[in-house]
What does this fold into?
Amino acid sequence: MNRHEEAIQKINQGDFEGAKQIYLEILVKEKNPKYLFNLSICHQNLGEMDEAKFALKECLSLDNNFLDAWVNLSTIQFGRGQLENALESIDKAISIKKEKDTLAFRTNILMTLGRLEEAVETLDLLLEMDRSAMSLELKGKFLNQLKRYEEAIEVLSDCLKENPDYFKAYFSLGYAYMQVNRLFSAKNNLIRYLQSDMKEFRAWFFLGEIYSRMKHNTQAGRAYANAKYFNPQVDVDIEPELMDISDPIWVVDDEIWEEEESWKEIDRMRNENIRREE
It folds into this structure.
């Protein structure tokens, strides 16, 4: 077993200090980008981020197309709040090879920078490779933040067709419908969301807003009370009181939300998925 193989074995055993010492020794004799990359892995696992960053830069000076080195450098820069540098590094990685993980990380950097238009464009590239419910929901959420509500409704509806049980999308879709004043659809989606996470005070607050616009004051008051129950900081002049989402009070007048045709279709798709699994 040569020294490099010995170092790899120590890394696999979690002995990063031992592996680091071996790489420091062999790098005196041979500047090899792979050895420098592995040394950076040791430094990272030991919490030595300055040394890890230095090793990665040395690695890239020898091989500027070392994909994983650019990704790891971007990760370190992102963790240190060096967002523009992190974006530059991940863009270099993507120019070498476009992968789902690097596109997802680029989206995260752009989101942190508040550059949502570019984040949406990056998600479109990711969706070409992997049309997942998670990516569709994230795109819909960004579109909501950009006030592009009709586009958000389209994307989030597609998300729920891909996976009717991806409940996070019901929240974002309900919010988008509320913003364009399609109140029944907004209410339906928020109720669906609350069936999966009853403690989300924002959903209760938005539900209160919707019922208020619909002039269903009893339901509005109950929804606001639930919002305040889960978050006492909610600014409504009402006593907090919990009422379960399964209570019939949430179905108003002769409008029963299960009868909406779009949800019948989603229910049909969910049942088909269950039958296939069986």
